[in-house]
Amino acid sequence: xxxxxxxxxxxxxxxxxxxxxxxxxxxxxxxxxxxxxxxxxxxxxxxxxxxxxxxxxxxxxxxxxxxxxxxxxxxxxxxxxxxxxxxxxxxxxxxxxxxxxxxxxxxxxxxxxxxxxxxxxxxxxxxxxxxxxxxxxxxxxxxxxxxxxxxxxxxxxxxxxxxxxxxxxxxxxxxxxxxxxxxxxxxxxxxxxxxxxxxxxxxxxxxxxxxxxxxxxxxxxxxxxxxxxxxxxxxxxxxxx
Length: 241
Ligand SMILES: *Cc1c(COP(=O)(O)O)cnc(C)c1O
Fold this sequence. Notes:
- This protein is of the alpha/beta class and 241 residues long.
- It is globular.
- The mean pLDDT is 94.
């Protein structure tokens, strides 16, 4: 990374932190109550390390292989590492012990497989349940009507700790467009909170990305996942050396 790139990264991170703080205050909340997760996909170890040196405290990775490669390069040193992408059951074993939170538990089957693997390692894995709030066929995640049963079944697993909900709403053209999805998610979050399930702690409501995180915070998100606004547009070409 050139010095110029580092400066640009620092400026973008400051700008995002400032926007998060403003959105929090506007919603009558404290900026420290919002966890900013930097979505690090497609950004190499050097860029991730630079972001951490600029104040990023949580990294969210999407692909297991990419996470393992960057983990071996100490990309996440100094930050908390979480998994936010689609997860195949045969790859769970690579994440246990490395990630503090798996945000993308979109089925009972996946949750049970994580519990099994965590138990094997003698650890308790924190997870979020992913909700397919837009009911999109192409997306994974639990439908709202599946949520109660999923919580009942997964909260019975000792090796699993449900810490909240995550959602990726449909791509919004205008910023206000996901307002209804975010509002609905918050309502569901509060409903579950009120029901006080054993072994379930509704600590995190993870929603909001570069294009809509302010709306998400306004609607009650306390965890946002931001990539582009931090790292700039992702280049899906081959990574430069
Ligand atoms: C990439 C990604 C993000 C961040 O997206 P941006 O629009 O770049 O902020 C958030 N959540 C998940 C699950 C992602 O894969």
